């Protein structure tokens, strides 16, 4: 889906990436969590009027993909094509993800540039040939240190397990090419020191610092025991290590060595969103590779926590891989987008439960937000024939609403746009929604309507205009989170055409009071958040 919205011409794009996801299986909630977060972040910056570039995609090389394809009786390429076209891209469309590009690591625009990048490092003396033997997790596509392994029990008794996948590691011995990662320990530590916000959250930063301070080992950047990958350009008996291949997508997708203008106006990423299990690749290996190549480093590597079910990380290997469609079919896409960012503090682990989702949907979306929109539209229809009246009798109660909105906008803009605190930003908006609900309860427009005097009519008009104008601002603020719902509310407020398209509304300017014109036709449209049916049978 292509991005829209006004952009500042000539400025560097605000560039956000998700990890590129393995195509060994269909996406689950964990993948969607990171992708929705990136979508909300980039939509927010678009509504600041900024030039934005949002990248996601799929990682299609490596031993894990090869084995999955073999188990399904097809070639790795055929397997990747099937998963991308039938599972990954359709889900992002379903979840209303407005990515600007979708890169696949089997595309020639990527593979050619990867070979050029690695060849250049080899020519500079950053890569050498050597041997290595050690425990290897196919699921992680990574050699493991002894301290990173678990002792197996039960059917795996006597074996060493990957702490993430809970599966036995394999002892691999092969002659590979190595990147001189050990030479970058001090340079990385200096960068972390000079840029304390480079790795987030703080717990992730501390983990990386401790790891690097112990000293880095040179990185095996090729494999010779299988052939599904990008060939090492000077030795076709080897393929490039899948993680070196994968990380380079952030450069190849925006024109590295191919489109200098695009590359200069986009690279490096302002934010790499990653799962904490792949933090070291992004916070250690990726910046070291860029340093070796003399390229600028990303602005921020932000690690989100794990989604947990029954105390276990949500994943296919743990059999907790719930499909997003299992939830959107019941709660709706917008509620889905809202829930995980609202319920879980980004950067921390969080537990999902159907019961919690249902409770929050009913309390916050249906009762607080949806009911407010419905009540206001109904009263404008009942008392003013659907034509929004002008506010001519503002007082202290209205001043409090104006101030509450200004506070909500500033807080949400800071938390979402700068701090990646999606939960805090959403809560700031919903605190304002609750304030408006309280305002209506205190002002009792249904009682004021009984006063037929000019003063009574002016007071009623002011109350309803204040409530409707508040909803206009809420529609703008929640548009990055719930675009379909915001558009429905926008249309019901009669905001078009006087204000223009919702996507062109600036989040910071939503605090400006009085942008909803008096005389707008307010209609009571479809219920924003319908009552939930019974939970589907398991």
TrEMBL record:
* Domain of life from the UniProt record: Bacteria
GO cellular component, alphabetical, reads: cytoplasm
Name any Gene Ontology BP term: methionyl-tRNA aminoacylation
The organism's taxonomy opens as: Bacteria, Bacillati, Actinomycetota, Actinomycetes, Catenulisporales
NCBIfam families from the UniProt entry: metG (TIGR00398), PRK12267.1 (NF008900)
What cofactors are annotated for this protein?
Answer: Zn(2+)
Fill in the subunit field for this protein. Monomer.
Annotated catalysed reactions: tRNA(Met) + L-methionine + ATP = L-methionyl-tRNA(Met) + AMP + diphosphate
Tell me where in this chain the Methionyl-tRNA synthetase anticodon-binding domain is found: 388-535
What span is annotated as the signal peptide, if there is one? none
Motif 'HIGH' region residues?
A: 21-31
Catalytic activity, EC: 6.1.1.10
- The motif 'KMSKS' region: which residues? 313-317
Q: Which GO terms describe its molecular function?
A: ATP binding; metal ion binding; methionine-tRNA ligase activity
Concerning HAMAP family, the annotation shows: Met_tRNA_synth_type2
Q: To which protein family does this belong? A: Belongs to the class-I aminoacyl-tRNA synthetase family. MetG type 2A subfamily.
**Keywords noted in UniProt:** Aminoacyl-tRNA synthetase, ATP-binding, Cytoplasm, Ligase, Metal-binding, Nucleotide-binding, Protein biosynthesis, Zinc
- Main subcellular location: cytoplasm
Class of the enzyme per the UniProt entry, highest EC level: ligase
Q: What is this protein called?
A: Methionine--tRNA ligase
Membrane-crossing residue ranges in chain numbering = none
Where in or outside the cell it occurs: the entry states: Cytoplasm
Gene (name only)? metG
Provide the function of this protein: Is required not only for elongation of protein synthesis but also for the initiation of all mRNA translation through initiator tRNA(fMet) aminoacylation.
Q: Which Pfam families match?
A: Anticodon_3, tRNA-synt_1g
The entry marks the following residues as binding Zn(2+), namely: 137, 140, 162, 165
Q: Which residues form the Methionyl/Leucyl tRNA synthetase domain?
A: 14-376
Question: Cofactor binding mode, per the note?
Answer: Binds 1 zinc ion per subunit.
